[in-house]
Specification:
By secondary structure, the protein is an alpha/beta fold. The chain is built from nine helices and 21 strands. The protein folds into three domains: 6-20 and 101-210, RNA methyltransferase domain (HRMD) like (Transcription Regulator spoIIAA, 2-Layer Sandwich); 26-93, Archaeosine Trna-guanine Transglycosylase, Chain: A, domain 4, CATH 2.30.130; 232-422, Vaccinia Virus protein VP39 (Rossmann fold). The protein is 26% helix and 30% strand. Helix 6 links the parallel strand 16 (272-277) and strand 17. Helix 8 packs across helix 9 (372-386). The chain is globular and about 70 Å long.
Amino acid sequence: MHEPIAEISMDILGMELDTHDTAPLTCGACAILKKGEGRLLKAGALWVFDNEIASVSGRFADGDILAVQDFDGYFMGWGFINRASKIRIRMLSRRQEEVISPAFLRKRVQDAWDYRKKVIDTSSCRVIFGDADFLPGLTVDKYEDILVVESLALGIDRLKVIILKALAEVLAEDGVPVRGIYERSDAKVREKEGLARTKGFLSAPFDTNVPITENGVKYIVDVADGQKTGFFLDQKLNRLAMQPLCKDADVLDCFTHTGSFGLNAAIAGARHVESVDASQTAIDQAKENARLNHLEDVIDYTCADVFELLPQKESEGRQYDVVILDPPAFTKSRNSIKAAVRGYREINLRGMRLVKDGGILATCSCSHFMDPELFAKTIREAARDAHVRLRQIEFRTQAPDHPILWSSEESYYLKFYIFQILR
């Protein structure tokens, strides 16, 4: 039995908290690496694993920020420690002269926001993306004037109040108000950090069905009970890329979730869209989003298992101008890669067979463990078995508000191909 998800409540926005404070948050302890370890850390990685540490000197508690040194005393950086996790230390800074303080965290937040303003429409976007923003274990998504936070590491959990207060202040100084904050730290992975799964308001309560507009499409985002933080912002520009390809097209949108790809196809002028998902809850929300955009006459919704539906469509001789495959992650560990490959090969094979000659297939994987080379190999094998040729139109990844940090492999997870199918 797992602990029930606890509802939490505090008002971060109303707190008196000096985010410009330069007083150190470090504990004075020091972790010393074993001889021969730390190679990845020296190359820019942000994690120290339990088997890399020789000893820890000084007094500390789990979640504390301490110094990290190589076996010979060379300073490696500052990070927070948790003996309950195999990822024993998550790094915050490599600079010995840097003081880890509320002011330091505010600067991290300011840097993250300044970056987003340069690369993405910030009306709704991911403002903080964990390691890629050097705030490991923390995700913050902005839906118009609502922030949704996911905290997955003990050390960052202890710092989140400072970080969120700083973020609200940074946004306000830019003329971007924050009306409320909601926490969605209810992922099972928190248990690996010795943390309970939790969700609830971190501000005064508000309506958790939040209206947003993306690529000209209106949505209602359920930040309390939707998947992850309520919406998949990482596909924003991939959805936009599909719009011109869907004009006057007959479109099959698989794993539609709350309807986003299908809605982008319809608003771009698709002749007809069929959107499919196995979750009736998702289908109901997608229908509501279609009504919101006055597109209910263009899109039909089917609640069905895509793996069962595609062969049925094939046996009926059904063909589409555009097929979109946006499945959930088929693997969340290296142990299930083989099963995931079979799943990706199957849906791509079936999807390709449903595309008219000269039509379009969009296909993606959001699993970090399905690396780009393996995903490409799997698609190539599916094309061979489907007896089609693939002409690549575009290869894309996650939107730039989900930046890929090359020294942090985990930050690169979304692979998105657009192909023309030729027989």
